[in-house]
Amino acid sequence: MPTNPGHGSLSGVDLEKLAIQQMTKDFCRIKVLESPTVEDVLENLIRFDIAHFACHRSVDSEDPSNIHLLLQKSGVVDKLTVSQISKRNISGQTWIAYLSACSTAGVDAKLHADKCLHLSSGFQLAGFAHVIGSLSPADDDICVFLAKSFYCSLRKFGTKRSNRAVAEALRNAILEIRLNSLEPKLWAPFIHCGA
Fold first, then answer.
1. How far apart are CA 28 and CA 50, in angstroms?
2. Would you say 36 and 51 are in contact if contact means Cβ atoms under 8 Å apart?
3. Which pLDDT band, with edges at 50, 70 and 90, does 189 fall under?
4. Cα–Cα distance measured from residue 55 to residue 142, given in angstroms and rounded to the nearest whole number
5. pTM
6. DSSP label at 157?
């Protein structure tokens, strides 16, 4: 979602989409959902091994189960919440949820210090074996580079669903970023949760 009503644009989303298409064309099917609604996303989650989200994330100061990814429906924000995701039972049908959005694995200490509910945990509860998320805000250009490097590394493992492949692909991508930038705030936010 390069744009959302009332939120800043994400200039790297289209570049990230192209990089993913280029890196994955040989080893997995791709379906790009342009301006998807919550309904579109929930309907398609079980149809593909990997769900990649490149969008904004937002918090709910009262209820952490309402933390959400910003999608859109008819030009209006459509919220894909932790609650909606975690109620899905897609165990064994999907492999990776890649959340290229700020703080998808982070907990806002001021609002929910005693909670461990965040978007990444919601995808794990739904049955995703692996979730790639971020603990804090992520740089848009770094998200593009990370996604391209992650899928390039994952492609080397072929179509074999290996737990090690996912963790290793993220590690390789982060190490590649570290070679080009000594600033931890650019590479440190990204984490792998799962098997």
1. 9
2. no
3. very high
4. 14
5. 0.91
6. T
